[in-house]
Amino acid sequence: MMLQRRLFYFLFLSLVCVVVTDETIEILKNIEDLKNIEFGHDYPHHGLFLLHFLASHISIDLSEGILLHFDPERQDYGFQYYNNTRIDGNTFLHPDDPQDRVYYTLGDLSSEAVRTKLPPYVTQEFYNAYESPKRDLDRMVLEMQKGSSRKADRVYITQVVIHQQGLQYNQNKTFEISPKLIKQVQALQKPLNLLQALELLSTDNLNASKGSSDDPRLALPSDQFLNYLKYSEKHLKNIFEEPSLRWLLILAGYDLDGRFKVHEKIWSCSKDESFQREQTTGNQKVHLCEGPAKIEVKSTENGYARLTWSGIPKNILDLKPYLVLFKSDSSNDLETFESLQEKTSGSVDTTMALNHGLHPRLVTYNFANKYGFLGIRYSVIWRGPQFDEANRAIPVDITGYNASLQLYTRNGYACARLYIKNSFTDWENEFRYSWVGFYTSDQDPNHKHQHYQWVSKFDKVDNKSDDHLIYEYESSLSIGPGVQARFLYSSQTVYTRLSLRWSSVAVKARTVPWENMYK
Description:
By secondary structure, this protein is α+β, with helices and mostly antiparallel strands. It has three domains: 25-266, no CATH class; 294-383, Immunoglobulin-like, CATH 2.60.40; 396-510.
């Protein structure tokens, strides 16, 4: 009898532990579950944008394993190490956190090293809600096994709270994202055959589609599907360019009306729809809230900053706005400014060398009296994303080795960065005859490089990564559309540049060609 009581007591405690664990971190199984929590639901939160971005860069295998298309240890896309320890000394995500687990977090936009690596749709609310305390609260966390840099065990969403000791994640607003939910977000990114979907939604085939498809749009009633589609085209299309992102916001319960009101305020939109439709430029009708508006820093053919813009509403052009360029998003000293020339889209080349952190803003100027002095003052309408030195492209793996290569720019010149994993201890000996070549096009033969440097002559730099050594080199080639870096491996000595042409070499890595933009 005593033994039975002990067994019963043990089973009871086990069940309690399971319940406590489940209640501590709830698992969200589908997009519908996102509606019932407070995560990224209103402006200027960026949590749902982070979820969309992460889903675009992972795969779910047949056993629901989470495969990463990047390396968080290398701090790709701004991932940062997280030690999973609360301010009170306890662990945050799991009380019994095993020693072989490691955590990485994404979304700390207060760090320039993070926000510059993420796409504009993730960061635009951060830049344009300049004084809002809610613009940088959302995070995503990856749980991984040590030594497994390309596979995650779990994905979490959470929010930060501010303590005197610093930022801490909110235990009550932390949830695990299931692989099924991720697959639903990924399904939204596939083009939807509208006619086929409408036919399916209006027939008895709907029940079959619910069980065979991960696409949550096909689980909607036909009338609700049409209402969502109309709302997306009418309101969200002018704010968010990506259709799949608009669908995620709609299905996850984002405050669409509130965001549209922000849009109206930013762009001084008329609320009279008939008035909006009647505005014309020649024979073309103009919507005073057209968009989405974009301003960005791109590259000229010789390493200078090119300012581009598109989707600027006609009523804003009537204010004679300018595009101004600053060294960073915290700087108030403008480096150069250019007129939009009354064009809703276009580009203009500047004489500013490309450097990390350059920040474009759309402004209007006026004369104002401040502290008894009459001078020119400017008002910011819209802030674009800061320029990233690597064009937000992550390093490419060097085939066969725990190392990778990245193309970036400094002062408008093409540069190369090597990431060497700490476990690759023999890299100096293995790469002693290897070099990196710089090319103006990905079509150039290997011996037609414009510049090159031996790996042994790269400079070591200090870095915050405990997992990699980092080496850099700045070439004399101007960065520009199409420029590419290649890692060329040789097992024998190559004495002169001329002999590179006839050397027995292998291209172990090619970077993505630098962005190709219109002039």
